Amino acid sequence: VIWILQKHLERITSVGPRPTGSPENEILTVNFLLEQIEHIKADSASGPHSVTVDVQRPTGSFSIDFLGGFTSYYDRVSNIAVRLEPKAGAQHLMLANCHFDSVANSPGASDDAVSCAVMLEVLHSLANLSTPLRHGVVFLFNGAEENVLQASHGFITQHPWAKQVRAFINLEAAGVGGKEVVFQTGPENPWLVQAYVHAAKHPFASVVGQEVFQSGVIPSDTDFRIYRDFGNIPGIDLAFIENGFLYHTKYDTSDRILTDSIQRAGDNILAVLKHLVMSEELADSSEYRHGNMVFFDLLGMVVVAYPARVGTIINYMTAMATFLYLFKKCSHPSNVGRYIKELAYATAVVILSWLVTLLTVLIIALVVSLTGRSMFWYNDFYTCIFMYGSAATGTMVLIHTLAKNLYYGVSCVCLGELYFDVSLLLWCAALVYLTANDLCSAYVPMLMVAFPLTTKLLLAREFKLRGASVKYSVLYQLGLALPYVHFMFLIWVVFEIFTPILGRSGTEIPPDVVLATLVTLATLFLSSFFLHFIYLARSTKWLLAGLGTVFTVFLVLVLCGMFFPYTADPSSPRPKRVFLQHTTRTFHGLDGQVKSRDSGLWINSFDYTGMQHITPIIPEINDTIRTSCQEDRPFCGYPWFLPVKFLVKKNWYLPAPEVFPKSPIEFQVLSKEQTKWGTVKITFEPPIVQVLPLKKDERPVIFIIGTLQL
């Protein structure tokens, strides 16, 4: 089976990049998929299932609130829909979705050819089952996802089978290989999470990822949005996340996707899909709709899942236990009044240490950015941990050492216990806040309260007798092992996703500030229940000396330019992303007369370093050809493929010879009319125009963007 999957993957990617509209996408890949589907159909002809194939070429448009919001128009994009059902027919359908198109510069092995290869084999396996399925499945191979989710919209809004779809599984990629993670489910419909929990053989899921992704922090989206918003159906969104440095690049090749990744994805998708199409819930999914699920895996071995309402009860019970623990201390005859005052002062010290630590590390990140050494960690991630991590840890230890020596003047068990209580109180506050805001991610602070509190109560006698003894330290760390291991795993996932994203997040956001913030927050959170050891230790000078030395060495190396952000090393490439278009621009006035015309290479850097590392190699591309936004023209007067000018404001425009396309498009004005909104609508043949809203005292402008008749 693995050999067949790899063969499918190699065949799809062998044609090269497959942008929508290209022969590679619309003819070669479509023909290959249809050929394989016909083989599957023939193999299963004598079984209990029927296989129906439909090639759809939808045309349509829709508005989407993504990257600032825009309207997307598509014309005869490709969908291959395969309906698998019992020969007696099926009223209810499950949808499995992948896309076979790719961006223009990538063979798209991980995004998303491997998912289509897996779907072919899952289709083959289900079609040849000896026992008939309870419900039907539609396998949708869509050919227009990269130009913003168009083919999925065409299917769910126009295909006759769409009305019978009750739920879906979407297969995507934000990296190249590794484990596929469940990063979105729902909306609501907890039965889908339960199906994944029961069926997946290699689970990898977290409600934290779901809430982070749906917050809009990650500048990406998938067909999940289309099925959810336009089809009003629930689903599961899975994606490969490892090695996102190669995402949407020429390095996304089939040989980089390990056999284990393909096997794991195939096992999971087949098992989950089979479970869903045999389930009772699919027939009447609306009955099971309400409610959310708290779900997370433990090192990919087992998934813990329970209803959000149960989670709310557990969270508030944990918070109540914490408040009872603290109240008992407050009400002790020897502590009345004094303990509350000491707890308040200690809490202020901790919060102050957080703020000073974060501010210190951000200043360091700004210095690095201003000296032109931004993204030094892009090729050597460990360097940011050593530099920003040591700075964060050292600053925090220094502040608490000063508090111990200058404010308290002593090291004692009582101080250690006090600062443990502060950490417990702060995590408990986070627990209550997240729970009150109906965030399922509240399970994280719940774990970070329940386990330390239980451990502390069990070790209370040992702590009072011996303080920070070796035995206490070992037992204490064992008690914190489960929440800390899980929390560190979540932190790893955050860095695995966000570090590559910072290489394509535009020229306006200093990536070192973002990464330094993430490293500092991780340091603060992980150190929270170890702060009290500072107050139990006799001295921290050797720890501070070691952290200071590490920070100083790496700061000097970074400022001396010892770490270059990019590499073409075949084993682990870290490419710089540059968008380059050879364009001829012609601007017309409302009277139809040409106002201006020029030709050039329009260059965008998709990361913060701009042309800094390109100018020494290509001197013609330098800051003298930097161009600013022409506010009187739509999208600054440039032909953005996506309207992301708010992320990429630094542009370079190098004069070049005029473009002579093989098939030039001639525009002819058919009509022109004034709208009641103060804009002008012009209809072209071949069509399209975008009518833009006007600011006060601004003349109307028209921007030609495609082929839609308004």
UniProtKB/TrEMBL annotation:
<dbReference type="InterPro" id="IPR048024">
    <property type="entry name" value="Fxna-like_M28_dom"/>
</dbReference>
<feature type="domain" description="Endoplasmic reticulum metallopeptidase 1-like C-terminal">
    <location>
        <begin position="573"/>
        <end position="685"/>
    </location>
</feature>
<protein>
    <recommendedName>
        <fullName>Endoplasmic reticulum metallopeptidase 1</fullName>
    </recommendedName>
</protein>
<feature type="transmembrane region" description="Helical">
    <location>
        <begin position="376"/>
        <end position="399"/>
    </location>
</feature>
<dbReference type="GO" id="GO:0006508">
    <property type="term" value="P:proteolysis"/>
</dbReference>
<dbReference type="Pfam" id="PF22249">
    <property type="entry name" value="ERMP1-TM"/>
</dbReference>
<keyword id="KW-0812">Transmembrane</keyword>
<dbReference type="GO" id="GO:0046872">
    <property type="term" value="F:metal ion binding"/>
</dbReference>
<keyword id="KW-1133">Transmembrane helix</keyword>
<dbReference type="GO" id="GO:0008235">
    <property type="term" value="F:metalloexopeptidase activity"/>
</dbReference>
<keyword id="KW-0862">Zinc</keyword>
<dbReference type="InterPro" id="IPR007484">
    <property type="entry name" value="Peptidase_M28"/>
</dbReference>
<dbReference type="Pfam" id="PF22248">
    <property type="entry name" value="ERMP1_C"/>
</dbReference>
<keyword id="KW-0479">Metal-binding</keyword>
<feature type="transmembrane region" description="Helical">
    <location>
        <begin position="442"/>
        <end position="460"/>
    </location>
</feature>
<dbReference type="InterPro" id="IPR053974">
    <property type="entry name" value="ERMP1_1-A_TM"/>
</dbReference>
<keyword id="KW-0325">Glycoprotein</keyword>
<feature type="transmembrane region" description="Helical">
    <location>
        <begin position="542"/>
        <end position="566"/>
    </location>
</feature>
<dbReference type="Pfam" id="PF04389">
    <property type="entry name" value="Peptidase_M28"/>
</dbReference>
<comment type="similarity">
    <text>Belongs to the peptidase M28 family.</text>
</comment>
<feature type="transmembrane region" description="Helical">
    <location>
        <begin position="472"/>
        <end position="495"/>
    </location>
</feature>
<keyword id="KW-0378">Hydrolase</keyword>
<keyword id="KW-0482">Metalloprotease</keyword>
<feature type="transmembrane region" description="Helical">
    <location>
        <begin position="406"/>
        <end position="436"/>
    </location>
</feature>
<keyword id="KW-0256">Endoplasmic reticulum</keyword>
<feature type="transmembrane region" description="Helical">
    <location>
        <begin position="515"/>
        <end position="535"/>
    </location>
</feature>
<feature type="domain" description="Peptidase M28">
    <location>
        <begin position="79"/>
        <end position="272"/>
    </location>
</feature>
<dbReference type="InterPro" id="IPR045175">
    <property type="entry name" value="M28_fam"/>
</dbReference>
<dbReference type="GO" id="GO:0005789">
    <property type="term" value="C:endoplasmic reticulum membrane"/>
</dbReference>
<keyword id="KW-0472">Membrane</keyword>
<feature type="transmembrane region" description="Helical">
    <location>
        <begin position="298"/>
        <end position="327"/>
    </location>
</feature>
<feature type="transmembrane region" description="Helical">
    <location>
        <begin position="348"/>
        <end position="370"/>
    </location>
</feature>
<keyword id="KW-0645">Protease</keyword>
<feature type="domain" description="Endoplasmic reticulum metallopeptidase 1/1-A TM">
    <location>
        <begin position="339"/>
        <end position="558"/>
    </location>
</feature>
<dbReference type="InterPro" id="IPR053973">
    <property type="entry name" value="ERMP1-like_C"/>
</dbReference>
